[in-house]
Amino acid sequence: MTLFMNACAFLVNVLTLPLHIAEVIGLLSFYKRVFPLIVYKISISYNDKMNDNKRELFRNLDKFYPTKGSLRILELGCGSGANFEHYPTGCRITCIDPNPHFQKYLKKILHVICKTTKYFYLYKTGFWR
After folding, report:
1. Residue 120 domain flag
2. Which of 116, 112, 118, 91 is nearest to 47 (CA)?
3. What terms describe the molecular function in GO for this protein (predicted)?
């Protein structure tokens, strides 16, 4: 079993070698800053094209409201918040993204949808550098 685990660890290290090299020479931090901007720009046109499809996908969320309290949604990899406008009114959203540079774009869309970011909290984790 140990041999198998060592082989798997070696394979993962080989596959992620380009990421390790990019981090050493400073490209990974540049990528983490530029990627959210690119996603934000693309998501604007993508959301316009996919609006009807997303509305259809999210239309049944109202059925999941609990008898007491509000609907709680966990959004993993929320990015710039492209799905937020499709969530039901009054739900509580917890969103997680490993890239802290999405925060600026996430706040923009929250101001448009929620009119406030009063309840927006940033929790830094070990993933954020």
Report:
1. no
2. 112
3. methyltransferase activity
Q: In this predicted structure, what is the pLDDT of residue 91? A: 82
CB 47 within 8 A of CB 54: yes
125 lies in some domain: no
pLDDT at residue 93, as a whole number: 82
In a domain, 46, yes or no: yes
Profile the chain (129 residues) by mean pLDDT over runs of 10 residues.
90 86 83 87 88 90 85 86 84 82 81 60 50
What is the residue range of 29's domain?
2-114
Give this prediction's pTM. 0.64
Compute the half-sphere exposure of residue 127: CA atoms within 13 Å on the CB side of its CA.
10
Q: Which of 105, 98, 84 is nearest to 37 (CA)?
A: 105
Q: Is residue 51 part of a domain?
A: yes
